[in-house]
Amino acid sequence: MAGARGRTLDLDSPGALERLLSAATAATIRADDCFDTIISTCRLIDVADLGAATRAMARLLSIDGELHLVEPVNHVGPMGMVLSSVGSRLPRASGLHISRDVVGAVRATGLSVADVDRFIAQTWIWPLRPLVQIRAVRVASANDRTSVGAGGSLAAKITEEKESS
């Protein structure tokens, strides 16, 4: 994917989605577990808990790390709610978690959403046609307990400090 840099976690890679979900419940994240770029292309529809998945992505990103997503999103407007409800019952969409506010879930993690592009794709499964492309960045903030250099993870830095105490 264009824009991917440094250590990259592509959720299409074997075992990557499982790795992400284990990070959602891990007590700490080690520096070795952090990535400069995380990529997801229509993989979050396989995850029931969107909030846990996006929080795990934020935890796995190093400071200045980037999240790149292309995911199906909810249809807009009142008619969109009806279409989404009907669409999720179609056999081809069975088991997929669609019609969710992916942009809102990413923003809720505290990541800085840099780019959002909504578009319609011509797919065989019409509930999956509205898509969003997101680029979000993990930035160090004044709320961080310590400063972390480029490529480092705040969670990893805190873990290292606790282990050295």
At a glance:
The protein is of the alpha/beta class and 165 residues long. The protein has one domain: 3-Layer(aba) Sandwich (Rossmann fold), CATH 3.40.50.150. Helix content is 30%, strand content 24%.
Assign the structural class, choosing from mainly alpha, mainly beta, alpha/beta, alpha+beta, or little secondary structure: alpha/beta
How would you sum up the major sheet?
Answer: 5 strands, mixed
CATH class: Alpha Beta
CATH topology: Rossmann fold
Helices and strands, in order, run as EHEHEHHEEH
Strand order of the largest sheet: 1-2-3-5-4
Per the principal axes of the C-alpha atoms, what is the gross shape? globular
Q: Distance N terminus to C terminus? A: 40 Å
CATH 2nd-level architecture: 3-Layer(aba) Sandwich
How would you characterize this protein structure?
- The chain is α/β, with parallel strands linked by helices.
- It has one domain (8-164): Rossmann fold (3-Layer(aba) Sandwich).
- 30% of the residues lie in helices and 24% in strands.
- It contains 5 helices and 5 strands, in the order βαβαβααββα.
- It has a 5-stranded mixed β-sheet with strand order 1-2-3-5-4.
- β2 (35-41), α2 and β3 form a beta-alpha-beta unit.
- α1 (16-25) crosses α2 and α2 crosses α4.
- The radius of gyration is 17 Å and the shape is globular.
- The termini are far apart.
- 29% of the residues are buried.
Task: Itemize the secondary structure elements and their pairings.
Blueprint: E1 8-10, H1 16-25, E2 35-41, H2 50-60, E3 61-72, H3 77-87, H4 102-108, E4 112-120, E5 130-137, H5 154-164
Parallel strand pairs: 1-2, 2-3
Antiparallel strand pairs: 3-5, 4-5
